[in-house]
């Protein structure tokens, strides 16, 4: 009878395969004891580049809740496409979400915080969104600690009011980077070119953070 290897040794061996998805998949099918480590390396940091991939991830995680607990970081690069809450998988342990080139409107991501309850860091770059939709999105994430917004294409609301994000007591860091000329009200473009990077720390004592109001005022 062949003696089994110590778990620490097998984990150390599998660590060398952390970038080899095919080999990790084979290991997961070879030995049940290797499954947890193989899953960790395969799914902890994911990149999605199409709606088909995002839907496939949702369908993969739905019948296997343990798999959703492995994912810690999700990057979504879907150019000129609209994100919908219904397309998102339920990832209760996800802490970092990166959106690049994505778009969404008011109501598209309502309730996203239920699917991503542990989200702490949100990074958005080159995203085309309505300003009120951004406020709704941020308000649904109760534990957000870091928010980064880079070169966005924001559309101001049709109405005169300013959408304001609700309580974000956990927010510690806010980064705003406007490298391009943003659009103004629908059908018009602003003539001001903004190039601003703002970092705000120690915001936990603020009862309400008018983040979207600040973005609005920078572009007026």
Sheet with the most strands, sense and barrel status: 9 strands, mixed
**N-to-C span:** 76 Å
Number of domains: 2
- Which class best fits the helix and strand makeup? alpha/beta
Shape: elongated
**Percent range for helical residues?**
25-40%
CATH C-level label of the largest domain? Alpha Beta
Q: Could you tell me the number of beta strands? A: 9
List low-confidence stretches: 181-209
Give the name of the CATH architecture of the largest domain.
Answer: Alpha-Beta Horseshoe
Order of helices and strands: HHHEHHEEHEEHEEEEH
CA gyration radius, whole angstroms:
20 Å
**Tally of DSSP helical segments:** 8
Proportion of residues in β-strands? 15-25%
Average pLDDT rating: 74
The CATH topology of the largest domain corresponds to Leucine-rich repeat, LRR (right-handed beta-alpha superhelix)
Overview of the structural elements:
Helices cover 29% and strands 22% of the residues. It has 220 residues and is of the alpha/beta class. The protein has 2 domains: 1-43; 45-218, Leucine-rich repeat, LRR (right-handed beta-alpha superhelix), CATH 3.80.10. Helix 2 runs antiparallel to helix 3.
Which features characterize this protein?
220 residues; alpha/beta; Leucine-rich repeat, LRR (right-handed beta-alpha superhelix); 2 domains; elongated
Topology:
Layout: H1 7-15, H2 21-30, H3 35-43, E1 45-48, H4 51-61, H5 65-68, E2 73-82, E3 96-104, H6 112-115, E4 121-125, E5 128-130, H7 131-139, E6 146-150, E7 153-155, E8 173-177, E9 197-200, H8 211-218
Parallel strand pairs: 1-2, 2-3, 3-4, 3-5, 4-6, 5-7, 6-8
Antiparallel strand pairs: 8-9
Helix pairs in contact: 2-3
Organism: Rhodofomes roseus
Pfam families: F-box-like (PF12937)
Domain F-box: 2-38
């Amino acid at each position: 009878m062949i003696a089994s290897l110590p778990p620490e040794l097998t984990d150390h061996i599998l660590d060398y395969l952390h970038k080899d998805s095919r080999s990790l998949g084979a290991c997961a099918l070879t030995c049940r004891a290797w499954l947890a480590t193989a899953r960790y390396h395969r799914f902890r940091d994911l990149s999605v580049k199409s709606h088909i991939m995002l839907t496939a991830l949702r369908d993969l995680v739905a019948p296997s809740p343990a798999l959703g607990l492995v994912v810690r970081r999700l990057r979504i690069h879907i150019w000129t496409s609209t994100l919908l809450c219904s397309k998102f998988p339920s990832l209760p342990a996800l802490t970092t979400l990166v959106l690049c080139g994505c778009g969404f409107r008011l109501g598209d991501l309502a309730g996203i915080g239920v699917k991503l309850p542990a989200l702490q860091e949100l990074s958005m770059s080159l995203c085309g969104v309505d300003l009120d939709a951004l406020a709704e999105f941020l308000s649904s994430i109760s534990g957000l600690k870091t928010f980064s917004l880079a070169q966005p294409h924001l559309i101001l609301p049709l109405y005169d009011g300013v959408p304001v994000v609700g309580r974000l007591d956990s927010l510690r860091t806010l980064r705003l980077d406007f490298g391009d000329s943003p659009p103004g009200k629908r059908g018009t473009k602003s003539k001001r070119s903004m190039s601003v990077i703002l970092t705000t720390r120690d915001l936990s004592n603020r009862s309400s953070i008018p983040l979207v109001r600040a973005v609005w005022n920078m572009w007026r």
